[in-house]
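Collaborator request log, item 7. Partner lab (contact: R.S.) asked for a structural prediction of Serine hydrolase domain-containing protein to inform their binding assays.
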Amino acid sequence: MKKIIIAASIFLASLSTALASSDTTVLNIMKEFNIPGLSYAVVKNGKVVQKGYYGKANVELNVPLTEQNVFPIFSTTKAITGIAAMKLIEEGKLKLDDKIGKYLEGLPAQWENITVYQLLTLTSGLPDVVVEQKPGYTMAWVTENEQDLIKSLSALPMQFVPGESWHYNQTSLSLLGLIIRKVTGNEYSNYVQNAVLNPLNMKSARFGDVWKVVDNRVTNYGIKKNGELMTWNTYHYPDFALPNAGLNLGLEDMVKFCNGITSNKILKEENQRKVYTVAKLNNNKDNLLGEGVGFGMGWMVMDMNGVKAYGMSGGAATGFLIFPEQKLSVILLTNASGIDVEGLIMRIASPHLIVK
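Returned to partner:
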């Protein structure tokens, strides 16, 4: 009994140190990168062991950040799209090896045999629908009219033979959104609401870019090279592009999503695992983006010095990582575009990680 009490005391002391370290790390990160507002959570075994809301939701009006605020999560949306698409596959309404020509009309010949899998893994080779993104300026699109989407993109060259390589773009999941509508009879946003957000009770989650008024949404800023802030309301998305980056939500709902993943509330474990398994290219090699980093179906997959993690980030401002072997999830939401999200999450997670 005495040994158990001593062991418990040691555990509580180490946990207290870890919690204090995470909080201190977050405050140091904010100061180091001049981040106006930040919320974060550390979740262990499904329980929040540390969270915080710091700084400003709006700098100009001196509005403090609170738990009521929602953040645009940008391309972190892709992870939710991956889960939503896999739900249709689990239900037998869609197949990974389906050719997109089965669902979409008016495709050029070289697009016909692109698969749903290649859309999800960004290995389709399709030209990017985003023409240009200059810092501080609104994204420029090939077209913002869905009726002209396929025709406009058809005039552009393929980036590579489908399945031969990987390229980060906004076209693949835009077409996937159209397929989801074709299969379900619902707009992408409505389908995701019913298939993922509602079952996880994610009440703050709502779709809308910077052109839409979203209650309690933080003001987003960019960080210049000299560290100064600039307004950064550049992320405008046509409705067809919402599967890439259109979701806003608060910290509590991001916790619900991570817990929904780790407890398999949306998908069976074997199907969910496919989403964050590194994609295979035509040569059967893993789609690795760098040492220890790969890409699955809308998810980044990492194995850094024996520490395995999967998750996603967006806008160089928000993201999450799940460390399955550690039963740990770490979420970081900020209103500052221009930070190394995964790197900062690793710093926050570090006190809680056991490295083999």
